[in-house]
Queue: 3 jobs
Job 1
Amino acid sequence: MFTIGQQVMLAGTPGVGEVLHDYREGSVAVGWEGVGLRVHHVSQLRDAAEESRRLAREREERLAAVLTAFTLTFGIPATVMVIGPDLMLIPLQAAYTFAEYAEKVVHHCEDGLRKTREAAGFASPRLKIGALYSLTVSTIPELVMRLKLRKSSLDIDLTLGSNQVLLEQIASGRLDAIIIALHRAHQNAELLSVPLFEDDIFFAAPIGSPYATRPRVDLDHARNEKFVALNDEFATATDFGELFRRAGYVPNVVMRVGDIFSLINLVSGGVGYSLLPGRVALFSPRIQLIPLSGRYAAKQVIALLVPVRRERDPNLLALAAECRMLGHHGDNPRFADRDAPARKKGRSSQQAESLERHSARQLRTRTG
């Protein structure tokens, strides 16, 4: 049998009055579709109303408990009891005043916590990334584009510098993450590494040099040549010194500079030869990168470094995930199109499990 409310709902439907009469007489099946939908709807409304009343009673009980505790703790009357069919506690003005300031305190604490997290770099709307100058042609623009597609609201500050400068800045907290060149296992236990790709070191010469037709260059045959190099704080300068130590002599370095662009211009202008990573081939068509002979083969591993203490930061998780994807697909597919030496993507990048899964065990490809 339908309740009064259900009959009212049904009566408002065109043509249902007769159906309701027939239903009472037992001549219409209960499963008649139109009536069934109406009945189901009314039943849902009734259940929702009962649930709302239950929640309201629970809120009233909790509020009464809080106001009573406030009165007992501070000795300030906050409620007045009203005797009736149901006992009721009516909040006084003191309760409203306290509630107003309590709400301000809660909001102030939430704001303070948010700003504290931002100061520590957690969930900040701005990500400060440091990178090598030599990565600015392809790797960094593509990485920033990918990161912006993933987190469009994230603002990115980019700082360019040498390996040494960037390591100092991330250690002091001025940078959130850095992308640098590693030559061997990094010993800093406070940093985690996510490799992107490997890059070979080449003999850099101007177009049309005497070495242009050689498939490989033996540094033993370049003892009498003039060289230009980067300052010692750069990763490529470390490779430069190491390879000439293998060759057993000190090269004639006529000039040292503080950026990769100036060095490439000096090489292209014929001031001297140098040793440079393959990724710089995109910087200028006026230099030629020639592979070194076997005993002088050397590689750099381009890797993202992030602080261990912030490995679960959402922004760094997104950055690490994009670095892994970039390393997996290769750094720059266009590089091979210019007949420049192909760079090998780092197989070790596959060992860096997804930072995005919020698990240090899955994240860590330790730098040390």
Job 2
Amino acid sequence: MRHTASQRRKPLILVVEDHDSARIALTKLLSSTGYDVIEAPNGSEALAQLATGPRPDLILLDLMMPVMDGWEFLRRQRFDWHLCTIPTIVVSGVPSHDPRCLEMPIVRLLPKPYTADQLVAAIDAEISTREAPDPLITLRATPRPAPVPLRRIRI
């Protein structure tokens, strides 16, 4: 079934946050903003959901969690070819100059505390970037003009 502009599905966001109140608040905020949301309380459950459930358009990830923290989740995400292309926004109190931030496939680091407007703007920026057509694919899909036959010129 093809989606028209009015039938286009809502972007799906996976929220990985161990604090129940923060996860519930994020889910309510994102749902009211027009996103579909799935939740996981730690990295281990997030990986389990990613293995069996729908593929999210974006992952919103806390770093400091029990069971499996965000660092371990990011490490496993980076080495799984199904998951490494999902953009990830890390929301954490960890400073951006932490060497671990430089080693991981973090699309964006949103330091805590952040406002709802900052969060939605970061998500909207990543989602709209993913929806934009890939210029390489566009170039390859553009028909090329027929080649002009070469003629010999006598001098």
Job 3
Amino acid sequence: MPWIVLCPCRCDFQNGLKREGNQNVEALQKGVTMNAKISSKSLTEIPVTALFPLYGRAKETNEKNHLFQDPYAVKIMGKIDFDFSIYENMKATKRNEMLAGIAVRTRILDDYTKEYFGKYPDGTVVNIGCGLDTRFLRLDNVKINWIDVDLSEIIKLREKLFEKREKYKMVAVSVLDQNWLNEITVAEGQMVMVIAEGTLMYFAEKEVKILFNQLIAKFPKAILCFEVMGIKLQGKVHPSVAVLEIDVTCPWGIEDIESIEAWNPKLKLVKTTALIDQYRERWPFINRAVTSIFPSIKRKLGHSIVQIEIEDTV
């Protein structure tokens, strides 16, 4: 299905927000600060990759048959001093493929988060590489403890954009730092949810393994929900930053997702979901056609959401 390219003017997004009614506007006023425009110049290299998902969620909110609504993304776009119209200069097929991916992965992880809330309403969610994600604001059940983790450039920007809220914490740290988990405390025996959306592909595989071992040591019981990309995308420059003429590559891709279980005996694979298999009507025709003829390509050139449980095997 072809996408309608929006006018670079952000009033399209604001008008779309108004059409959704006063309830969303009131929610925005409660969750997002109303200060003057905030510079995005501090976002370089990997942190700048947070901007395209924000743009994608705002566009999805304005879609007639949206998979979710993110009025916060719409508002944040208007608060950041960045020319989001530059993404309209991307090749249309690639842009539409990426927008579909953003919409589908957001919906999948929203559903997994709601499922976790249903089982553990007063649990703890650790969102690694949160970027400008607004999932806590959109899904907050008042009881959940939520921790957004990212590099200092992102957290400094978030602190200017988001108001302080009870049971919500932002941690500015690199998860590659040995002691980063010292910033996080959870109740003994609590089942924790860890999300890593659009994050792990920027690490080398050995770094991902170290991270998983850190999580296992910290959280005896946890459900990990994370995004992986296909092996053939490994080492490529991410398209969302290529259009900005920034050289940010993705070091890690994987095809044999089941092999992750062999990294540690406490890791148990629960589910793997190829993004292209979900809401297929939302994907460009070429993506649907190729993956129908060559299904194995999904794990070579596509992205998946993986659920793995940390089990205490003792």
